[in-house]
Amino acid sequence: MNARREAYLYAAQRLTALIMAPLVIGHLITIIIAIQGGLSAEEILSRTSGNIFWAAFYGLFVLAAGIHAALGLRMVAAEWLGFRGPLANWTVAAVGLLLILLGFRAVGAVI
Amino acid sequence: MAGDDKDATLSVGVWRGDADGGEYVEYSVPHRASQTVLDVVTWIQRNIAPDLAYRFACRVGMCGSCAMTVNGRPRWTCRTHVDKVARNGRLTIAPLDNLPVVRDLAADMAPFFEKWKRANGAFQGGETRDDPIAEVRPDEPERKEADAAIECINCGICYAACDSVRWNPDYLGPAALNRVWALHNDRRDVARDDRLAAIGGEGGCHLCHSQAGCTAHCPQGLDPSGGIAGLKRALFRAALKGTV
């Protein structure tokens, strides 16, 4: 059972990395295009408000980043701090959840 | 070449101590042609420090007992020529990393072999002496995969070279997992799923960062890192199938 959990977490780490790679590139391209000729809150909101594509793009990004960061922190905590076991697992899960909630809040604010 | 010069000497720092700690002690050793690091250690013990503890047996790279840290890297001392590793006539020799020290250059291999046991590293067959001998063809895909792992002589060099073991002493390490990869590709073995379960949990193969220090240092030219990657894939498939 433990082996199955670790196998799924390993796969989740790789899968979220796979998802984020094109999203990071898309995000960088968007930034470069968006800042041409200045940048204003109105301009950003006019692009994102009510736009399902950007909601899905950044929603998926937030979800993948939250999961990926939490799993990465789990490894760093185990190796660098010796912080392992159930308490460590719950702690990084809480950090991941917090990242996802804050991310969704930010996405919700501009959509 | 220094080895041809009868007066040439090597300055050798040898780690002396025990489980409670120690320090490097300096020795001057005559430099000879075709001299190995094991020759240097033996010369020191026979001529200067008869109480120097170290381990060796075959002297020809078959037994795997003379591995030590030479100038910061784990090596078979019997197969390492001084001329290839000495820097300006200088050598430092220490016991293998990532293992407790018995005394001086002799590392305690007990935790290393405990992990082989924990990984369920013994072959488990399902046939009897009355069954016909299993035919394993050299060109079978599984047999080819096993090439990355067989011929290991348990010297502990990959284990000493592994940063993941250094960071987490519970990690099984490349040698035990390499053994599991050999058995995982042996279709005569009947405990393959049990073995995946044994190496998939806490301290298991997912702690490997694929830095491949094991593969870079293996004197046998094996690829434990590749085998561990294969075990991770096998575990994911087993998780989907529900067999672990």
Description:
- The complex is a heterodimer of chains A (111) and B (244).
- Chain A is an all-alpha fold.
- Chain A has one domain.
- Chain A is built from 4 helices and no strands.
- In chain A, helix 1 packs across helix 3 and helix 3 packs antiparallel against helix 4.
- The longest helix of chain A is centred in the first third of the chain and has 33 residues.
- Chain A starts with a helix and ends with a helix.
- The mean pLDDT of chain A is 94.
- By secondary structure, chain B is α+β, with helices and mostly antiparallel strands.
- Chain B has 2 domains: 106 residues, Roll (Ubiquitin-like (UB roll)), CATH 3.10.20; 132 residues, Alpha-helical ferredoxin (Fumarate Reductase Iron-sulfur Protein, Chain B, domain 2, Orthogonal Bundle).
- Helix content of chain B is 34%, strand content 16%.
- The longest helix of chain B has 18 residues.
- Chain B is elongated.
- The termini of chain B are far apart.
- Chains A and B meet through helix 1 and helix 3 of A and helix 8 and helix 10 of B.
Radius of gyration of chain B: 21 Å
Number of structural domains of chain A: 1
Number of strands of chain A: 0
- Class inferred from helices and paired strands of chain B: alpha+beta
Number of helices of chain A: 4
Poorly predicted runs of chain A are none
Task: Give the topology string of chain B: H per helix, E per strand.
Answer: EEHEEHEEEHHHHHHHH
CATH class of the largest domain in chain B: Mainly Alpha
Rough outline of chain A: elongated
State the order of secondary-structure elements of chain A, H for helix, E for strand: HHHH
Point out poorly predicted stretches of chain B: none
GO molecular function (chain A): metal ion binding
Function (chain A): Membrane-anchoring subunit of succinate dehydrogenase (SDH).
Cofactor (chain A): heme
Protein name (chain A): Succinate dehydrogenase
